[in-house]
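Input set for joint prediction.
Command: fold jointly, output tokens.
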Amino acid sequence: MSLSLSFSFSLAPIRRREKKQQPTAMDTAGKLNSSSSELDLDRPNIEDYLPSGSSINEPHGKLRLRDLLDISPTLTEAAGAIVDDSFTRCFKSNPPEPWNWNIYLFPLWCFGVLVRYLILFPARVLVLTLGWIIFLSSFIPVHLLLKGHDTLRKKLERVLVELICSFFVASWTGVVKYHGPRPSIRPKQVYVANHTSMIDFIILEQMTAFAVIMQKHPGWVGLLQSTILESMGCIWFNRTEVKDREIVAKKLRDHVQGADNNPLLIFPEGTCVNNHYTVMFKKGAFELGCTVCPIAIKYNKIFVDAFWNSRKQSFTMHLLQLMTSWAVVCDVWYLEPQLLRPGETPIEFAERVRDIISVRAGLKKVPWDGYLKYSRPSPKHRERKQQSFAESVLQRLEEK
Amino acid sequence: MGNTSSMLTQYDIEEVQEHCKHAFSQQEIVSLYQRFCQLDRSGGGFISADEFLSVPEFAVNPLSQRLLRMLDGLNFKEFVAFLSAFSPHVSLQQKIEFIFKLYDSDSNGKVAFHDMLDVLRDLTGQFISEQQREQVLTEVLEEAGYTKDSMLVLSDFVKILGSSDLKMEVEVPVD
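tokens >
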């Protein structure tokens, strides 16, 4: 299997790339111990993305002492990773260039701050409060009184959720341009989008009441999740629980089968990324056996950086930051629905859709799993490097 | 995360530059400082092993544990000195010295058979048996004129690696 995906970023450190030695057919006499860890052939090959080095500089020739002692390629890779690495870059929120240092611009900036904090912010809080009052006073009666009339209740709830999301978007002076056909309520379809902040969900929800699969959050967000969003058909998961995955997978499958369930929205990156890059998509959304409709979201950073760096800010602080900025400007593209091609694995499918989204939104792809924010990479990657080096050593030993 | 070079004064930059023997330009030192602060999330003035391992590209490197032994607890000045071996402006001798230091884990100035075996084990993992590793190493040592009991010093390393076109350079991204 080959993935012809390009990987490029502008600040790549120059690393000495030695062409990885192609492993030759293994000696069946058993000279090479086969790996006990399975080589997951389904995984996109990270070696395609990363420069790989083997200590054997010349591809042929007898094995010499200096070939074994010369660890410079491996060291260069390590130093390159210390100096700059593609994963950390995905979560870097670049502080905006200060433009207010000039004597003419500084008063203007001060004036801007006053307008934002003393005029816009209170107005927005008012708008949001109004929205909540309207929403709660309509939602609670509808939810409780129309218990028997499910279709009508669901329809009204959908409209109300879309309404409160519109109020949220208005409270940040959100200017959202939607491109493409609006999502429809059909069975056997799933929507996937790139993830920058929790507000992605609100922006999309304003147009269509999706059922989303989210990490269960603490605090007031969790309260909202368990009450209002529950009625939309949202599904919860817990990143830390391993058993959770099967239960969630089943819930997903059940949901997409239902004809009048709200369309399902999944963020396959699994974590918030800074809207310049995309990390690898998890294959869960792509093995449900249904149409995948990609959505690309791109925020315009001039007005505010919408990236929610969950390690640095709580969601409340993030919202307050948005509410004291000028505007949230973004583009949303609803892209052409994709189906699993014959002979394509779910991982290849996921990468293909990631490619489509990244191209549309102008994002660069990196070969890392977003969950590496919370955990270490699997030893498989290191083992692959070790294996390629070991094979070339043994192969050159044969060439006596 | 450190985000402005105003955290680093001109004196600091010059001091660091002196310490690393001018291996990096002043702009590169500023970039390295930003990177240092980015990695040093706890703000302790040094990057812990855990913080280094949070960089996936570093964590998958077979020599990461050996490097961590050299990197642990370094302050910024020492961090730059450590990386100076990877500067294009530094001599081959210094690069070979760095490699020697990595092999010489007990810092006694001598690299023994077991030191070389340890590094080879890190690089090949479980894909070669211990026996094969010893065999390969003994064979190439003997071919180069040493024995299994030889203790290699820095000049031996220079002799062995000096003639090769050793390339060990990393470019520091400068905004």
